[in-house]
Amino acid sequence: MLYVHATIITVNGARDIILDGAILVQGNRIAAIDKTNVLLSECPYEPRVDLTDRIVIPGLINAHMHCAQTLLRGTADDLELVQWLCERIWVLQGNFTPEDGETAARGSIVELLRGGVTCFLESMFSDRYGFDGLCRAVEQSGMRGCLGKIVMDIGTYAQDPKWAMHPGLIEDRETSLGGALQMWEKWDGKANGRIKVWFGARTPGGVSDALYKEMSEISRQKGIPITMHCAEVPADREFFASRSHNPTSYCSSVGLLGPHTVLVHMVHLDDDDVASLEKTGTHVVHCPSSNSKLASGFCRVPALLEAGVNVALGTDGAPCNNTSDLLQEMKLAGIIHKVRTMDPTAVPAETVLEMATINGARAVGLDKEIGSLEVGKKADFVAIDTRKVHLQPWFNPVSAVVYTATAQDVELVVVDGVEVVKNGKVVTMNEAEIWKEVAQKAKEVVRRAGLDEKVKAKWNVK
């Protein structure tokens, strides 16, 4: 298939932008990329798709996502973190069934695909959500999923016993680590390599040192990557201090640092932490909407980037963002550090697009296959329709993508050479059926958790 007459932002090594460009897809790979007239002359009989007035970018990579939490959108708004977590989110998640988990995964994937995300990293899918259902949803959808199965053996958060998990979420070593290994053996590499199974470790304080060390050793032996929340809130920093550590020295002590690890949030860091992340090649995921809405703080993204740390981008879950629109997340990532540093050049649009594409691919270990549009790489790309008033005029296509476009502007999504979104609609899954299932299952979870009166509107509803 030949995709023609597009403005193509390649994010290749030279950061080429091709006006009136074309992409030739053969199988699941990019066979050629050049000016439209060049490829039309070379491939005159190839079936073609006209992308006039579209901007084409590499498939977006959401490097931090909680698929189960899509059922919980809007159930914990405007709450302080402890109340948000212990009185709402953990209680709701502790009442999930495997059917709820699969419905949530299907809803998450449809939302991600419609927003141009072709690959995502699930952070901590619990045993009770039904990991098989998550994998089935990814398999059916046609997208890529790096799927973290939760690893834990302590049911509290940080060092405060009041921050206790709902009993329905607590797992021991055998269920969490053992279950993750079983799912890795069953699903890793399935769906033509689109499914990768990860360890999704709980935040320090939720995992014993012994289990961290065991998981880290298995990770190195078997090549299973690790993702983990870290240094998100001041309480995390207090936990590390209680162990005579800072965030990265603690992670180093249990074998977590390295290019096999993706640490999420990383808000409360000192200069030593930044240097340690760069030295070890550990990846960081920035979640600006979540950090803002939960008042967690500002990640030191400019300092991390300046030090050479690979920083990717994530939306986090629906209760702390309310959307999985990575395009909107890109805009906030480009804006928030300007006011924080009082420097409008702090994180430019081009850097943000790198965070959402090639940096994300590097974080999940797939940068040789995806994250940029180059000959020989997998055909994962997105077309954004600029034939709308709010997207005109544009002069710099990167600026238009980062600061103006939203998920509603995504028209076409190709993953592994297959068109999975056409005309703004997912074609591999039944969207109407899924949104009805999501609405129904969400109400059932809230009712089961006994929180009907807690999540309703605060103003009078007549």
Automatic annotation (TrEMBL):
The keyword Metal-binding applies. Gene3D superfamilies: Metal-dependent hydrolases (3.20.20.140), Urease, subunit C, domain 1 (2.30.40.10). InterPro entries: Amidohydro-rel, Metal-dep_hydrolase_composite, Metal_Hydrolase, MTA/SAH_deaminase. It comes from the Eukaryota. Keywords: Hydrolase, Metal-binding, Zinc. GO terms for molecular function: deaminase activity; hydrolase activity, acting on carbon-nitrogen (but not peptide) bonds, in cyclic amidines; metal ion binding. This is Amidohydrolase-related domain-containing protein.
